[in-house]
Amino acid sequence: MKSRVNFISGLRYRGGTPMWVWMLHRISGVGMIVFISTHVIAGFLTHVIGNDAGITINTVYESIYFQVFIYFCVVFHTLNGARILVLDSFPKMLEYQREVIWLQWLIFIPAYGLMVFIMLTRAINGK
Amino acid sequence: MQTRKITPHSLNLELFMFLLTRISGACIILFALIGMASALMMGARTQMDLGTLMRWIFFPNSFHVVTSVAEIEPGWTNNTWRIMQMLVALLGLTHGFNGLREVLEDYIKGNGWQIAIRILILFMWLFMLWAAYWLIQTG
Question: Which CATH number fits domain B13-138: 1.10.520, 1.10.3470, 1.20.1300, 1.20.120?
Fold first, then answer.
């Protein structure tokens, strides 16, 4: 089967919030599997084999930029996954899926924002 | 990008993984809640900062709390937590690598590439399970 849309015209598709959370779910999922796999390999190298390469990988992993990104992936993927689970179990709620997504953001913003605020203030203060 | 081929009305790989993704996702959320409740009962409220508690909730491994818990033994590292970690690792890695397979298969064309990616992901999944197993044994 030949591809009918390219990436740019795909982005122009006006799917609204359900499309954007679908994309973010994929990005956050791939982000987690890549970075957490790297972190597990780093731990494996440090604690099982006793190689210093693991410490180098974890130094990058533990930097504030990675932590802010990974925390976004974890919290967003969890909340969005929970929403998918609920909507799949109760398909009648699909009628209100946009409202459920707003509710999801309402939980996400304080859960993520507060934590990032604490992480950034600690990073700036050098703790 | 192309539409996914679906064979309905039988328990094929896609349906099985669809169910597994939902069940494992729900289980991981449940394990996270158990981990959080147990950590608070073991004194995390006074011992831990928020980041350490988050790391522990995500994966209840003693390496994740070594910086802030004064006495690691015996509450934070025992066989209950090792079993918990193995369950989280097994479900999480299966969930994650299946998700990676689904994302990649949306962007590849041709059966040869599909088989190649499935074999590659199968080996990555097995390797990560093996690495996680040995890491959990030491923690």
Answer: 1.20.1300
CB of B19 less than 8 A from some CB of A: no
Measure B115 CA to nearest chain A CA, in Å. 17
Q: Contact, B55 vs B81, CB < 8 A?
A: no
Q: Write the ipTM.
A: 0.85
Reading chain B (139 residues) residue by residue, the pLDDT tens digits are 667 766 666 778 888 999 999 999 999 999 999 999 998 888 878 878 888 888 889 998 888 887 766 666 667 888 889 999 999 999 999 999 999 999 999 888 888 999 999 999 999 999 999 999 998 988 6
Q: What is A16-124's CATH number, 1.20.1300, 1.20.1740, 2.60.40, 3.30.870?
A: 1.20.1300
- Report the alpha-carbon distance of residue B16 to residue B93 in Å, rounded: 16
**Minimum-distance CB partner of B131 among A44, A118, A119:** A44
Of A44, A48, A82, the CB nearest to B29: A82
- Gap between the Cα atoms of B109 and B5, Å rounded: 12
Residue of B86, B103, B104 for testing the chain A interface, max A β-carbons within 10 Å: B103
